[in-house]
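Troubleshooting: if your tokenizer reports a length mismatch, compare your output against this known-good record of 65 residues.
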Amino acid sequence: MRVAVDVPRCVASGQCVLLAPDVFDQRDEDGTVVLLDEAPSAELYDAVRQSATACPAAAIRLTES
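Known-good structure output:
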């Protein structure tokens, strides 16, 4: 799995960080998403998929490989 984020689209809700803190973080100054791991390990796949689904701005894109 590959993860990409559309940072300008992010509304800083933080759902991704709550669900997958090993993959996502937020900038201190505005809460915008920071991608920590664009190719997470398989044990994180479910949490990353949940993050993409929960994102209110649909700013997370996943590519299954």
